[in-house]
Every structure is written in structure tokens, then in C-alpha cells.
Design goal:
Blueprint lengths: L10 H6 L7 E4 L3 E5 L7 E7 L14 H17 L7 E4 L15 E5 L9
Antiparallel strand pairs: 1-2, 2-3, 3-5, 4-5
């Protein structure tokens, strides 16, 4: 990880820095949200912090503000994507067994159809 909090090898850090194209639907000073290229629902957006954090297990109480901001940003994404009234799911996969495929904390916002439970 470099001095600015980015990993030089992380694909999501490259999205944040503009080195990799993404269909960005929302962003602010703390987060970037973009459409998942492997969408699992009609609406599938990833919300990531602008600095590198590998997974939720790295978070502690000092990250409380960021974690709240990530969740509030999911609400913004749902509004932008037109699913705030019909409903949506927010998922955080942490580690291999949970299905985390990119080692950068990210929240999935899923919607646009009736979602089943349990998810898998």
C-alpha cells in the first residue's frame, strides 16, 4: 500500500484513481459507486471506500464514520438507480468463504426484481 492509502495492484483502487473505466453512478469525497460487471440482479452496484481496506474484518471503531457513510451511500445509490421504493438488498462479503472476490471492502446494492431468501 502506498502513502495515499491505495494499493497499486488493487483493481478497485485503480477505479478510484481513474486508471480503470467503470460505470460510476454515484461518488463523493469518501466513496465511489459503480455498476458491477458481473451483475446478479437488474440493479447491481458496488459501493467502495476511496482508500484501500481489504475487507470488513480490518474495520474497527475508528472506522465507524466511514461504515455509516458507506451504508448511507447505498441509500443514495438506490435512489439514483430507481429502486429505493421497491426495495433493495445491501450485502458485504468478507473473505473467501463468503464469496469476496476482490480484496477491497465493497458493498453490493442489489435490486430491480424480487430477491429470494436465503441468498445462498
Amino acid at each position: 500500500m502506498n502513502e495515499r492509502g491505495y494499493s497499486d495492484t488493487c483493481i478497485f483502487c485503480k477505479v478510484v484513481k481513474g486508471m480503470v473505466r467503470a460505470d460510476i453512478v454515484y461518488q463523493d469525497d469518501a466513496v465511489v459507486a459503480f455498476k458491477d460487471i458481473h451483475a446478479q440482479a437488474p440493479v447491481h452496484v458496488l459501493v467502495i471506500p476511496r482508500f484501500h481496506m481489504t475487507a470488513l474484518w480490518e474495520a474497527d471503531l475508528s472506522h465507524e464514520g466511514l461504515l455509516g457513510h458507506l451504508l448511507a451511500s447505498c441509500n443514495e445509490v438506490a435512489q439514483v438507480m430507481g429502486i429505493s421504493d421497491s426495495g433493495y438488498r445491501v450485502v458485504i462479503n468478507t473473505g473467501d468463504d463468503a464469496g469476496q472476490s476482490v480484496d477491497h471492502l465493497h458493498l453490493h446494492v442489489l435490486g430491480g426484481r424480487k430477491l429470494q431468501w436465503p441468498p445462498g
